[in-house]
Each structure stands twice: as structure tokens, then as C-alpha cells.
Amino acid sequence: MKKAVLFCPSRVWGGIEKNVQLRARFLGESGVLVYVVLLKGFFADRFEGLENVSVIQVASRGGDFNLFVVANYVRILREICPDVVFAALKKDWWLVSLSSRLAGVNRIILYLGIARRVKSPIKFFLIFRVFKALLMVNSDSLRDKMLKYSRFFNERNVARVYNGFARPPFNVKALDFRTMFNLPPESVIIGCAGRFSPQKGFDLLPEVLARLPENVHVVHAGEGEFEEKIKSSIAQRSESNRIHFLGYQKTMHAFFGGIDLFLLCSRNEGMANVLNEAMSHGVSVVSTRVPGSEELLRHGQYGVLVEIDDVDAMAAGVHALMTGEQQFDGAELQEWIETEFGMGRMVEETRRYFFGQH
Questions:
Q1: Are 4 and 354 in contact (CB under 8 A)?
Q2: How far is Cα 343 from Cα 6, in angstroms, rounded to an integer?
Q3: Under CATH, what is the fold of the domain 177-340?
Q4: 3-164+343-354, what's its fold?
Q5: Distances (CA, A) of 316 to 56, 66, 83, 244
Q6: What is the pTM of this model?
Q7: What's the count of helices (H) and strands (E) in the chain, helices before strands?
Q8: Pairing of strands 285-288, 261-264
């Protein structure tokens, strides 16, 4: 059997971590032995029960150079002897690549979900030229950006693999947010989701609501390291009574079934998983013009695109969907996601790239 080790020692559960879970699940179901490396005490329960998937917990992820972490990673890899090692987070690229080479692993895949500047050319040169690591990105726009760094990247060591999504099951009961939050029947429910981070733009939600009728409410699903700071900032605004926080949701099907439209107000993204998920449920979306969203919405064909930080345009986009001024057919959204961003395609392309069939 093929073996894969997926490194994801994160303290925050977001889109990248969720995709590691998905890849672990589907690789395991396809007959690959999968080992997921997590920080001790973080998210092991979210991998329980997955076929052919084992969790390895580590006490520390290290920094730029940590002999103890490298020694532990080398020991783990030598015991498993994997065909491929995958690092989901950029801050782990260096130690995972170094440890993999020391352990004799020849195939190293490093994931990038959002555009980053090359801050350490020497380190990048070692990782991608000396250690021969390969880069996996989640959008064509991100691939094109990274290929501009021609000292490190070329068409042979960068591949785009879209994150995969499936149509939701038919028997899931939608969350009734109007009953949950004691809202009148005519309330309009905007969905937002994602980890609490300045990058996600949730601090803009009061400004967006200030430009919309009083019956418009936001429900947010997610958690994150900036949660208290962002919630505290929002609480100071009068619109805060129209913003409702759900916290972490194990499954998002009921969430998407209960909203009227979805808003992505991010300042920077590769390709936002939550936007794909909303569209896979046939939900109309408003999104900032982060590179992945332009690609996902086909430059406005499948959703409303607005400029980053432009709360006037966000509110106008929401209002246009509310009033029917702009309409997007839910079945067409689902067909677009299933055809171009389907789960089967992600699994097949991941397996092909992981095991050298590209």
C-alpha cells in the first residue's frame, strides 16, 4: 500500500486544516495509508474514525531551526517510510523539507493556499532547488503568481489542484436562524464563515449592515486566534445586535441551508473554501475581488464581485441579491462547482501529484 504523511501541526481550524482532513479521508478510502501529524491536544478528534488514517501528535512544531523537532520528525518518517510527505502550512515547509530529506523521503509536496512574498531566498532555494520539493496551490491565479519567482519555481515543480466540493446531501435539515435568534419572518440572513483573522475582514460587518435595512442579519460560523479581539470590536457598534456568532460547526450543510445569501469580505485569499461550499449548496454569493474568487466566480458570471474593503459595494451587492436586481440560478451554481471543483477531481489530482503520476 502507498503511504502518505500529512503535516498539519496547527492551533487554528480553518480552510487549510479542513482540506487536510478531506484529503486524508479520501486518500484513506482509496487504499492509501495516511498518517496525519498534529500538535498534541489540537484536533485529533476530527480525524477519528477515518479509514486507513492514523494521527501522530507532536509536542512542538519548532521554528526556523529546532534540532529536537527535526530529530522527532526524522524518527517518525524513518519508522513509516512514506512514499510522500505533505506539509499543509507554509511555516512548516523548512523543517518538514529538511527532515524529509534526512529521512530519505524523495517526494515532498508543500501546500500554499494564499499568495506570499518570498522573504528568505536562501531558504526557498534550498527547499525547492536542493531538496527538490514540489509546490501545490489551489488556483491558477496563485500558480501564475508563484511562477514569477523563476529562481525557485517552474512548470515542473508547481501544480494547481483545486479544493474539492460535493453537492450537499438531500436529507439535511437546515438551521432555522430566525427561530434560533428570535427574528421576525421577514429577516434576511447573510452567512459568513471562516476563522477569526484580520485577513478575513469580519471587522467590516457592522459597516456593511449600517448600509442595509434593519431586517438584515449576519450569522457567522467559525473560531480562531483573533476571535475575542474582533468580537470585542464589533460589540462596540450598534449593529452588533444583528451579528450572531455560532462558533465552530462540525458540519456546515445545515448552516448553508439556513442562509439567504453568503458574503465573503476577505482582504486576501487563494480560493476560499467557504465560497465553494456556499455555491455547492446553490447559495448566491457576494465576494471581494481576491484572486481566487475572481477565478471561482468566473469574473462575475457566478456571483457578485466587489473591491476589497469597499463596504458600500458589499452592501450594494447584498441589496441587489435581496431585491432580485441580480439573480444567480442555484442549480447552475451547483453544476459549476460539481464540474470544475468536484471532489472526485480533487482526489484524483491529489493522488496523481502525490505519487508522481504528473
A1: yes
A2: 19
A3: Rossmann fold (3.40.50)
A4: Rossmann fold (3.40.50)
A5: 48, 50, 50, 21
A6: 0.85
A7: 14, 13
A8: parallel
From CA 220, how far away is CA 257, in angstroms rounded?
A: 14
What residues form DSSP beta bridges with 217? 189
For the record, the C-alpha cell of 227 comes out as 476571535
DSSP 8-state class, residue 189: E
How far apart are the C-alpha atoms of 183 and 185, rounded to whole Å?
7
358 falls in which pLDDT band (50, 70, 90)? very low
**For the chain, how far is it from start to end, CA to CA, in angstroms?**
19
239 in Cβ contact with 221 (< 8 Å): no
What is the average per-residue pLDDT within 124-135? 95
Domains 3-164+343-354 and 177-340 are alike in CATH topology? yes
| pLDDT confidence of residue 119 | 74
CB 270 within 8 A of CB 138: yes
Task: Show me where the domains of the chain are located.
Answer: 3-164+343-354, 177-340
Contact 322, 217 (CB under 8 A): no
Sign of the dihedral defined by the CA atoms of residues 210, 15, 158, 124, in that order: positive
Could you report the per-residue pLDDT of 146-200, keeping only the tens digit for each? 999 999 999 999 999 998 887 788 788 999 999 999 999 999 999 999 999 999 9
Distances (CA, A) of 7 to 148, 173, 273, 274, 314: 27, 34, 20, 22, 37
Of 204, 344, 345, 192, which Cα lies nearest the Cα of 283? 192
Q: Are 29 and 48 in contact (CB under 8 A)?
A: no
